[in-house]
Amino acid sequence: MIVQACINGARPAGYHPRLPLTAEAMAIDAAACISAGAAELHIHPRGPDGRESLSAVDETVRAVREACPGTLIGVSTGAWIEGDAARTRDSIAAWRERPDYASVNLSEPDAPAVIALLHHMGIGVEAGLASVTDAERFVALLPDGRRALRVLIEIDEEQDFGKADAIVDGIAQVLAQANVRRPILLHGADATVWHFVRRAYRQRWSTRVGLEDGCLRLDGRRAAGNAEIVSDAVRFFRSAAPG
Question: How many other CB atoms are found less than 10 A from the CB of residue 99?
């Protein structure tokens, strides 16, 4: 069980005054999150114009590695970033400062090719599942899941707790039936962030928090930045632990 810090995501610049959008800002923020107890980092590198860019991965990963030596760093490969499947794969293939892992959304048509490329490059795959259909596709591509670093159950759009939990239940059932025994990281977005932090703890799964997913602390107050959110999640995991 770990708490991963997701420090920026696709959030626009105006989402939060301390949203890190440059390589330098991400490195500083990442170090603060690790000091607050995060075990890993999930980042969305940005180009000079502030937009997400797979071409900015080298500079950003290098800066974050210098600030957080020994910490696992992951990035997104979301199809929306480059907006073209071939350009996405070309950008990934050009990486020289390779992240430790990359998230791949199984809902995206080119996911099999992206997964194959990441495997070829020696980069871990964090398989993003947002629906039962995604889970079924995942077990069809990787029957026992062993070639995935972990399964990322991400419920970003559904804000109703009951409906969101039902999606998680369905995904977990598909994985169990396929005998997939990879680590699971569960996270929500906005209203469901802390609901799923609590559920992750109950099920002995990992979780993630940060400005990519939401800007509120555990008590509902607006956070000053990523480190406060991470600190709340880490303290919750530790205080809820038996003994």
Answer: 28
DSSP assignments along 192-222, one per residue: GHHHHHHHHHHTT-EEEESTTT-SB-TTSPB
- Identity at 221, one-letter amino acid code: R
- 5-54, pLDDT tens digit by residue? 999 999 999 999 999 999 999 999 999 999 999 999 999 999 999 999 99
- Of all helices (H) and strands (E), which one includes residue 105? strand 101-105
Tokens at residue 146, please?
């062993």
Residues with Cβ < 8 Å from 177, sequence gap 6 or more?
none
In this structure, are residues 97 and 66 in contact, taking their beta carbons and an 8 Å threshold?
Answer: no
Q: What are phi and psi of 140, to 5 degrees?
A: -75, -35
DSSP annotation of 40 reads: E
To the question of pTM greater than 0.85 for the whole model, the response is yes
- Amino acid type, 154: E
Relative to beta strand 40-43, strand 3-6 is: parallel
Non-local (6+) Cβ contacts of 59 within 8 A are 23, 45, 97
Length of the chain counted residue by residue: 243
Structure tokens at 157: 């759009």
What is the 8-class DSSP label of residue 58?
H
